[in-house]
Amino acid sequence: MADSSRVLPGFTISLGYTIFYLSAIVLIPLAALALKTTQISPAEFWRIITDPIVMASYKLTFTASFFAAAVNAVFGLIVAWTLVRYDFPGRRFLDALIDFPFALPTAVAGLTYASLYLKDGWIGGLGPHVVAAVNRVSGWFGRDELLPPDALDWLTFPFTGQTSGIVMVLIFVSLPFVVRTVQPVLQEWDPEFETAARSLGADRFTIFRRVILPEIFPAWSSGFATAFARNIGEYGSVIFIAANIPGKSQIAPLQIVVKLDDFQYAAASAIGMVLLVISLLLLLAINSIQNFARRHEPAA
Amino acid sequence: MAGAIAAKAPFAVAKARPVARESVLGRRILIGITVAFLTIFVLIPLINVFQQAFSKGLDGYISVFFPLQPDADATLTFSQKRRLAEAATQASRTWDSIWLTISVAAVVIPLNIIFGLAAGWATTKFRFRGRTLLTALIDLPFSVSPVVAGLVFVLLLGRNGIFGDWATHLVWPDPFSLHWVGFGESFWPLTFTETHTGVIFTPLAIVIATIFVTFPFVARSLAPLMESQGSDEELAALTLGASGWRTFFKITLPNVKWALLYGVILTMARSFGEFGAVSVVSGHVDVNDTMPLRIEKLWNEYNNQAAFAVSSVLALLAVVTLIAKTVIEWKSANEAQR
């Protein structure tokens, strides 16, 4: 690829327009946030972000996001592994399903998870639904009310609490990130290393631990970090499923909205600044993981 | 890059690469876990959207959008008339939200296409200092919470914002009020007949917030492809005497058309579904409701079935998006093989 700088036309106009658009949409607004934050004294800033309700929202946001990203890391690896290495009917369909959380609006995701988790939803109230279905089927055969309506009341999904609901919907929202980051690496993976290890007598788990895992670790960890960052900022789906009680089930982005509705712009900016700084730190971490991986790639 | 998956994955043809001699039981367990995980977290919620939308039957579903009209000669009680009027209002608000969502997307997508093409051209055809920084900045909206995105625009253009005085008195024409007025009065036969004032709490703010959230999609879909294609063909065109624009339209654009289409589809899906940023800048006024905000309103009014009915439209759009993505993958793989 020749360095064609200034030979091809359009450098000034394209770069100029890009920088203009970027500044107008991203840089200047983010600078406004920083500017607003500097308008309050450091002591006031500290007081705002360490307010008990705000702290509770941070705790909820970070623990729920971390847990959801961790679950996605484990299961995402399994899913990516299975989809790349095994062929089974329905593989392509499942592969297409993975992108669904990207395409579905977060409000719809929150809505459908909320309805599944309510007391009479399919998952929240699994027992009564199964009983109703069984009774309907038995009704076709003439035996109405095969089971009494409260027979399976004990059969409810164990995770129907507030935090669990938030974690479940965050799992949905960040599901594609780990899978789609690990999948290309597994796809490109040359099986000859595995065959060599096997010929040297390693068993399956050793192969996985010492040959495959180090190879996918950068992609896996950057996928985890991306999922974590996404979960922290998630707003639309969580507010449908959480009761949004201050101090108990409010997430940090909701705190920002609450402060904005109260016209407390300075407080909202302070909380937003914290979230922004954390997202940028995560972005930096992801980039350095990827740089590290690129630099240590074997010369192909 | 954070979120690079959306750009990279589609153009890798997904084929199973089985490695021999893995235990059948282990394989079955892993497949079972995969199927169970994806079913529980993706398939069942998706089916639930449609099941809830049709929970009052097909009539209930249709009446969310087209309220049932009574027979022409039926006499109605007062409460029946009131219920009909309410249903009509709800339906008209739903249609307004659909129209607003589509018009916001119609404005945002062309702007993002232009930006994506410009950014792709600038970052892949040339080498300059700060190129990596520029690419990283383009990825920035992916790591920013949508609520923070809305917040920064309120801080910038809100009543007490930095440009607040200018923004709240800004008068901008409604682009959908373009009318033909003939050559009699003024020089131009077309004018905008309606204007709006202010930025925040108007559709203009929704457009700006949506641009913030969606502008990386086209750029990130185009950049890797343009990078890997290099500038050989463009340079050849230059030596043959083509001008810059001609090279762009005849060489570059056709080469990236599938990636461009993919980026547009992603932008469309995201702009239809954006909730957090739009919720902050819209002020929750009924006229500023996009479809996700409308869904929230219906849900808060305990009108679950209607909320799911509107959601089913968006879910259907998501399914269509995925199908289009598969088709594009297949087509671009076909072309790459030729």
C-alpha geometry of chain B: globular
Count of DSSP helices of chain A? 14
Quote the average pLDDT of chain A: 82
Amount of helix of chain B:
55-70%
Largest interface: A-B, 113 and 112 residues
Characterize the main sheet of chain B. 2 strands, antiparallel
Number of strand segments of chain B: 4
CATH fourth-tier homologous superfamily of the largest domain in chain A: MetI-like
Low-confidence stretches of chain A: none
Give the DSSP E fraction of chain B (strand runs of 2 or more residues): under 5%
Q: What is the number of domains of chain A?
A: 2
What does this structure look like?
The complex is a heterodimer of chains A (300) and B (338). With 300 residues, chain A is mostly helical. Helix content of chain A is 73%, strand content 0%. Chain A has 2 domains: 41-103 and 161-295, MetI-like fold (Orthogonal Bundle), CATH 1.10.3720.10; 120-159, no CATH class. Chain A contains 14 helices and no strands. Chain A starts with 10 loop residues before the first helix and ends in a 5-residue tail after the last helix. Chain A has helices at 11-38, 42-49, 52-85, 91-98, 100-103, 106-117, 126-140, 162-173, 175-188, 192-199, 204-233, 236-241, 252-261, 265-295. Chain B is mainly α. Chain B has a domain at 58-65 and 87-143 and 215-338: MetI-like fold (Orthogonal Bundle). Chain B is built from 15 helices and 4 strands. Chain B has helices at residues 5-8, 24-53, 57-65, 78-125, 131-138, 140-143, 146-157, 164-168, 203-229, 232-239, 244-255, 257-273, 276-282, 291-300, 304-337; strands spanning 171-173, 178-180, 190-192, 195-197. In chain B, the strands form 2 sheets. In chain B, strands 1-4 form a two-stranded antiparallel ribbon. Chain B has a two-stranded antiparallel sheet with strand order 2-3. Chain B is globular and about 80 Å long. At the A-B interface, α1, α3, α4, α5 and α6 of A face α1, α2, α4, α5 and α6 of B.
Give a quick rundown of the structure.
The complex is a heterodimer of chains A (300) and B (338). Chain A is an all-alpha fold and 300 residues long. Helices cover 73% and strands 0% of the residues of chain A.
